[in-house]
Amino acid sequence: MPLPTVEHCCCCVDLITAGKIMGWLGVLNGILSFIGSFNHIGNLLAAAASIALSACWLYGIEKSQPSYLLLNVVLTTIGIVILYIADVIILLVAVYIATLSEKPKELNDFPLAFIVFVVILMTILATYCWVITNSVYAAVKERSKELPNVYHGVSRGVCQDASKIPA
Prior knowledge:
two-stranded antiparallel sheet; globular
C-alpha cells in the first residue's frame, strides 16, 4: 500500500515551496533551540541535529536529491508512530480518570475534555505534516527522474560520455 500524498500543501501551495518553507522553519527552530540550550549539552546536540537535518532537507529539495530527504521522512514516520502510541495512552488515562467515582476536586470534566480535544487536534495536524513530508519526498523523487544523467558535473547514474567527466 503506497503512502498517502497530496498534490498541494494547504490546497494551494506548491509542494516544493512548502518543502522549502518547512526546511527553513526547521533551521530557524534549530537555531533558536541552539541559542536557548547552552546550559544543557543534550539539548545543544538535538538543536545541532535539527539544523543538520533541515539543511539536508533544503539541499535535497534544491538539488533534486531525494536521498537527502529520506532520513527526515523516516524520522518523521517514527515520530508519528510514537505520537499515535502516546495518544492512545493519553486517551486511556483520560477515560480512566473520567470513570473514577471520586475524582480529585482539581479534575473536572472540562479540562479533561479540553486535553482530549487538544491531543486529537495536534495528532491531526501532525499527520497532515507527515503527509506533506511524504508528498514533498515523492515530488522531489519524481523531479529527479526527469533530470539528465549528468547533473552539475557529477554522474547521476550511467554516464553517456565518459570523456566529458572532469578529472
